[in-house]
Amino acid sequence: NAGVTQTPKFQVLKTGQSMTLQCAQDMNHEYMSWYRQDPGMGLRLIHYSVGAGITDQGEVPNGYNVSRSTTEDFPLRLLSAAPSQTSVYFCASSYLAGADTQYFGPGTRLTVL
Amino acid sequence: GENVGLHLPTLSVQEGDNSIINCAYSNSASDYFIWYKQESGKGPQFIIDIRSNMDKRQGQRVTVLLNKTVKHLSLQIAATQPGDSAVYFCAENRGNQFYFGTGTSLTVIP
After folding, report:
1. What is the pLDDT at residue B3?
2. Does residue B80 contact residue B19 with C-beta atoms inside 8 Å?
3. Who contacts A53 (Cβ-Cβ below 8 Å, separation ≥6)?
4. What is residue A98's predicted lDDT score, i.e. its pLDDT?
5. Pick from A2, B8, B34, B37: CA 20 to 30 A from residue B102's CA?
6. Do A43 and B44 make contact, defined as CB atoms within 8 angstroms?
């Protein structure tokens, strides 16, 4: 199993540009989530999904969209990038929603100029 | 965000000593807790978890203690090794969401 994969590893955007961060897992996990990690802070939940076709907002959803058309993939879209979105983004997945061990991807480091 | 925090942001220990990392949480509705280890440039890695119906759980060289009365969680690492140097996060679960603490940076001195 490849586990949780994320692409790209690094990305630089200009303010106002849009992009999609990719996340995929091959463990047949139902639950997937996106977090952002800023310096000196813990991870904050952006969006999550409890299964294909179902998504919901986390702590910091503004400026981000998600979709879950398949069990394997959970892309995160930045519609109009802002400098405040400069961060490291992590995707995670688990068998069950909520109370189950989450497995994290390697992260995407995003800089918005 | 939710008040999941750590008492100390940094911790230095001698190789071979035991390490204790603490975490406080504020919401008594949380029913599942996880400790993660994060090395530089990598994603968080699961260490150990505990559910709210338990007060202690042991793994290989690690023990998690949960005190629901004072809403406190701790991670004990026995015989700390240089490879244990990393940032450690606690996370609490409520419903479908996890809330993370800010992390403690553990440095092991050879």
Report:
1. 42
2. yes
3. A68, A69
4. 67
5. A2
6. yes
